[in-house]
Write a structure and sequence with these properties.
A two-stranded antiparallel ribbon has the order 1-2. Helices cover 70% and strands 9% of the residues. Helix 1 (5-24) runs antiparallel to helix 2 (47-71), helix 1 packs parallel to helix 4 (88-133) and helix 2 (47-71) runs antiparallel to helix 4 (88-133). The chain is elongated, with a radius of gyration of 21 Å. The protein is built from four helices and two strands. It is mostly helical.
Length: 135
Amino acid sequence: MACFIVPAAEAIVTTIVSKVVKSKEKELPVVEVETESGIKKITKLPFSKKLNWLSNLLWGGSALLCYEHLWHGEVIPYFPFLTAAADPTETSIMLQEMATVGGTMAALLTAVWATMLCVSSSIEKKTLKPYLRNK
């Protein structure tokens, strides 16, 4: 009914936080490593870009769920927009679905993002490993 609202709310927060973090990042994080031919600078991914991944996951998931609810007639283009909000007895069911399905979806997408962070960190470490071994 309205489970897409929970990940959409998280997407709004992560988008704002990502923009704030990006404005505070003065430079890209760079690691300088010494090689045989001199010093090589390797740029790491900034946290704002990683946070933007989460934001994109949440916006995409919310958009797909919203489309699905439009398709089934649970979201309508006129007030009150949610068919469950028109009937007070349906409102409690809608809120329960938001808490369970929407909360689970937001948590699952955040877990996928955390896995993406672990993989990207592992790739960055593998990239730096040959240079750090020479020291």
